[in-house]
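Changelog note: in this version the structure field was regenerated for every chain. One regenerated record is shown below for reference.
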Amino acid sequence: MESSYRPTSADVAVSNASVQTASWPRTKRRPSQFFFASTMIGLGVLGLIYGDVAMVWQHIPIDHLPGQTLVAYAIALIELACGVGLLFESTASTSAVVLTVFLLLWVVLLKLPALLVAPAVELSWLGFGEIAVMLAGAWVLLATQRGNTSDGWLKYIAGERGMRHARVLFALSLPMIGLSHFVYSEQTAAFVPAWLPYRLGWAYLTGAGSIAACLGVLFGVLPRLAATLEAAMLWIITSLVWVPAIVATPTDRTTWTAFVISAAIACGAWVVADSYRTAPYAGRAADS
């Protein structure tokens, strides 16, 4: 007997959205994914060269940890493998899952303890927020790579549901970064190139920009524009601060590590901004 059910327009819209979410990374590679992968490769290479973690950004809060060098090499290999894996269609999905779990452990084990011990110190929030932006970017890749067809525990963090959660995480991370520009305004202004006038003003402006981007993404007010401007701002900061420093001291490990971490944070924001690619810049996202 022929079924009398006929799909409604809402059913068709949901189906199309599911297909689009699941198929985008496999059918069209985005520059943000390549650059994000490149920063993970960069972190891995630095870890293998120096046999250590990424300094203050990846500091292991255990003094004299047995086998610390082996742990550092293991972390570097995970970063390198995930970065390379994201570059290839056959391994991108698995790499996105592994990278998301890895960055989640980074946030929980290395950044959350400092936040719990010193919640009144903005520096603790800054460190948490920076890595959380990277986690949000990896989560977006996981959500899009796995799509709405995942089963098991992945169905709770993949597809459209995972995408929404990743965007919320991204939005909530931005004030942690933006507020540091006000709390540590003099230190932030010192990073502003000397040829720019009103260096303190730029520190305040960029901090306010991150907070404004948070509100735009969180409440769906021009979310694509907000996320894109935040990613662009982070890239400009990375280029203006760390590229000249590398040119001036090309063999300095600290400068290279800071550059790669800063680029990874910018790429995390870029990946999130790319998740709004079907939404107009001057409008609300359909699925936000």
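Spot check on this record: Confidence is low (pLDDT under 50) at residues 1-27. Residues 89-117 form the longest helix (29 residues).
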